[in-house]
Specification:
By secondary structure, the chain is an alpha/beta fold. About 40% of the residues lie in helices and about 15% in strands. The chain has a single domain, classed as TIM Barrel, CATH 3.20.20. β6, α9 (about 180-195) and β7 (about 205-210) form a beta-alpha-beta unit. The model has no long low-confidence stretch (mean pLDDT about 95). The structure holds 1,3-dihydroxyacetonephosphate.
Amino acid sequence: MPRTPVLAGNWKMHCTIAEATALADGLASKVGRVEGRRVILAPPFTALGAVRKAIEGTRIELAAQNVHDQAKGAFTGEISPAMLVDAGATSVILGHSERRALFDEGDDFIRRKLESALAIGLGPIVCVGETLAQRDDGRTLAVVSSQVDAAMRGLDATAARRVIIAYEPVWAIGTGRVATREQAQEVHGQIRALLQEIGLPAADVPILYGGSVKPDNVDGLMAEPDIDGALVGGASLEVEGFARIVEYRA
Ligand code: 13P
């Protein structure tokens, strides 16, 4: 079975409920029936309900941008996995570089979130990626491998098949400086080799690229054999642009 391509929009801390509704309505009518690829929208928590309604009856899926690992308790400001399911999310982004860098999330916490998400039936989208300094030091493979290893090692095959990995080089996020398709493919190939090495069904795990994906570079990226989709920030906030990304031609 070939891997189904995944085009996911991470709206980050953007969109009021009204703005999110308009964006989701626009996408629902433009790409709500698209076949052969998965389309996932990740609005902020406050807009999950509105986006759920806007995409009802379409093939578009709903994701959250973060989750806590615990089921309930005194964790002011946090959201539990069950709350996300209740809000209609079917996936959740974990370990985004902004959460790692700005909110000190580490590999162990991200692994616990991943296990809690899987346990309740949410599909984790786990982000990994190196900083520019790490790349310049020749440490890209080491950094990305240890993040992937921490998230994935020891999962059973069924669980691993429900995970999506997103390779997002930090230097390419929000900078307009996209990784070349060769740079991205190189790391994607290494991630897949690592999954194989640790005994997971590597051929079945989608690996997305993220970092300045735009309508004018998506086709080239998607033509690479190990790039199975895109996790899109800025360009997912606009209907025409994200629709074009969903309708990439490889
Ligand atoms: P940009 O597409 O804005 O570079 O953001 C990428 C990203 O961080 C998606 O999670």
